[in-house]
Amino acid sequence: MSKLINLSRRKFIYTASCACGSSLLFPSCTEVAMSERKQFNIMSDDFLYSQTFPAYNKFKSQSKLITGTSEYDEIVETGFNIRDAINAYYDGRGEENPTSNFQWEFVLVDDDQTKNAWCMPGGKIAFYSGILPIAKNKDGIGSIMGHEIAHAVARHSAERASTAMLADLGTMALEQLVLGQRLPKAAGYVRQFGLNLPFNRRQESEADYLGLIFMSLAGYDVNESYKIWERMKEDSGSGPAEFFSTHPSPDNRIKKLKEWIPLVNAQYPAIKV
Predict the structure, then answer these.
(1) Which terminus of the chain has a lower count of CB atoms within 10 Å, N or C?
(2) Collapsing DSSP states into helix, strand and coil, what is residue 35?
(3) pTM of model > 0.85
(4) Catalytic residue among 74, 95, 148, 206, which?
């Protein structure tokens, strides 16, 4: 019976993906800002934020945070610089700004053993002190910040939770009929798939590309984007960084970043804000 359910699941995902590509049957199929990739998303921002903002506040209350230092100030300044550059870009083009409803917030966590950074949906960002030596300078911070913000701009967490929910919806009737199982509520998908699991290769590559654009618009040196990965590789001898371990194929990503840089420099120069 499990084999039948899995076959039905795959067929449903395939059918829904085809429908998403045509944008006829699923009005929730949208395009990712700037990359123009089609994505399936059934999670509204309001619902997503109702789940992630409390999670961010809980994280802050349980973490040792650094404030009032030059490192903290630089992270906050970099975040707002990229925010302002994104706003200026969309204002100048008269297009809808994908960050217009973000509630930006930046924290620096006092944890030298954790080499990581992340951005929750809605612009809730955390850097760990352990990643600062790898960032090395303001342009490195700009690269990491741009990459993490890109995940939020592209709604990757919502896409991942929606895809998981879509897969289960494809077999919901069969599972309930045969196995008597009930599916978890949507909030469970947000927590499990939207916050806890690493992004997939396609989303990481997209965040690399969009992050490169954002740091360029904000006036940071885009060449630092691939240098960070070189430093990550060198540092991995002392133990795998979480940021590194959830970002596959570093050599390939360095290659792609170098390929994108001339295009980004030409099409997305720094914006005066």
Answers:
(1) N
(2) coil
(3) no
(4) 148
